[in-house]
Design goal:
single chain; alpha/beta; Rossmann fold; GMP Synthetase, Chain A, domain 3; 3 domains; 5-stranded mixed β-sheet; 4-stranded mixed β-sheet; 17 helices; globular; AMP-dep_synth/lig_dom; Acetyl-CoA synthetase-like protein; medium-chain fatty acid-CoA ligase activity; ANL_N_sf
Amino acid sequence: MPHFMTWVLEALAKYPSRTLFKELVHPRSQCSPSWVSISYDTFLYDLGRSAAYWIQNLTKHGVNPNDVVGLWITGVKYSDLVHIYGLARAGFVPQVLNANATIPIIRDLFAKTGGKVLISEPSFVSDSVDTDKDIGSPILFIPGDLSTLPAPTCPLPNLPDVAPTDRALIFHTSGTTSGVPKPIPETHRWITYQAQVLWARAFHCYPDGRPLMINNIGFFANVGSATAITYLSWSGHSFIQTSKSDFEVDEFLAMLEEGLNALFLYAPWFSKLLTIARNNTSVLAALKGLGQINYTGAALNPEDEIWASEQGIAVTALYATTETSINLVSPLAEKGILPGMRVVNDGCKFIPTRGLDQNDLDADSQQRSQGGQLYDLFLPANADTCPHASVRNRPNGHITGDLFEEVKPGLYCFRGRNDDWIRTGKYFAFCDTKSIEDHVLTSCADLVRNCVIVGHYKPIIVLFVESVQPITSPADEAKFKAAILDRIAAFNTRLIFHERIEREAQIVCAPAGSLPRTREKGNIRRKAVEDEHSMRLKEIYAGFEDKI
């Protein structure tokens, strides 16, 4: 099939004078935010210069078309987007790395993806780094300014031949497994289907063809924001840069003045925005004036859903993953169905979940459940957004790990997770509980008999441990916790902030065998531990809410 950049270039050329991107100007003082408009034509010209630059510099290091090249970026610059697509236009496969990465982590990632060269923001690499010893590949630096890139002196080479399932771009999970993010290659077939089919079904507020302007969600090192170029350019739409995912109200109102007419938000921030709107008529009017607000990452609380519907706010829920793109969206025309969603990805299938009942759901999902059959979301290998073969968790396809309940024919509601990954932290990013639990059990084998991590949709994770020896005094407990923290300290440094256990308040001690377990296998039941110790956990979480 054609390389995904073939039709991206065609799409960019169709709307040369339209605005593609509004870059946030970061003021040095506390003045109002402002933006600079960048046209389709400007972006097309810039990525062409970037492509020529990287062809010239990477071929010197023996990098060939379709080879993987690491791109370690801040994720907040317009130039980051230019270099992602410039490298793709040059025929390479960008492995996009965010600012949280480290040289040891990149070395481990390159071992999995076959990365040939690391291209880095200059400030990320110290003078003491030995490329051969520390990473095993050359390190090149991103030019400080796009204006320094020379214009191509000859036509760029043709894009390389690709198969539908070849890697086109590589992103990473928001959490880590044993301290290393999981690389998620997006294939050419995957990107094409997301851009040309799924996003048109996700944002359907202006069927009359009116240009859409949405906000970016997250940093440009994340798949949702980085691939916005592909799906917006296909229809001549644009997006506006935010300072952060949970941007302030003043910034939201300022974006409306710039032309924002649809929102894409994580559910926690949307809930806070609705709380503000209850007492701020300007914010309420702004929300009501938007063509569509798509929220993702979690369910809203029922009170927010009802209130938003009563106010006439055009709210839709969206379910997507880094591995499988968009799968379900609430139809805008169907009122009062939140958090219900319908399938928009033609490759999705629901298969009954085995070995899990309603009582094992997290508290919020259990409260909402209607007692029906729970389903896993499955994408067979021939589905357009089935993940790359290196990511799939089934021989014949991929299960997302999230649970759903069919509440009406064809209408599905999210009901939590069916595996060891939970969402936690300020932005409810993924956390692989099992890898942390396994490390505690290995490094503290003489101290800890068993343990479990809890904190689904909470500000931090908490470790419950059953001690090998009885703990008989506060002094013994403090010494016990300090020993655990000391032994996992090195492991913590490899984890992303929301995955770390760094304070004694994040450890709860329990007598051996006292934590609730499953009948058959005797595994500690995460949800049951949260329920049984809900008051203790509430106090712990309250102590961290103002520190994250």
